[in-house]
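User: My collaborator sent over this chain with a note saying "see what the structure looks like." That's all I know about it. Can you take a look?
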Amino acid sequence: MASAIPEPAAWVDVAPAGDVPRGEHRVYEVDGRFVAVYNVQDELYAIEDVCTHDGNPLSDGPVEGTEVICTRHGARFCLRTGAALTPPAYEPVPCHAVRERDGRLEVGAP
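Assistant: Without extra context I'll predict from the sequence alone. Here is the result:
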């Protein structure tokens, strides 16, 4: 299982606060990586937008609760921890800290 989300070295301003409505997600570039930010019942989660099994974008897949499903082979990942929950993925996807501050959406840089 993935470890806790580390304290970011820096915060990257990606959008206005509220840019990710409840039940939706958006993808932003953060330090050269694509990070998908999900709003699940008004809780924000940020994971790198890549399936660790084959590199497919996870943001293409459906979300069930706090899990995202890769459209290529059905691997599931936890939005809270990044853990790979089902084969064929076995490696976790990196998570990022995310917050709304001073009217802006910020994602933690690694």
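A starting point for your reply to your collaborator: The mean pLDDT is 94.
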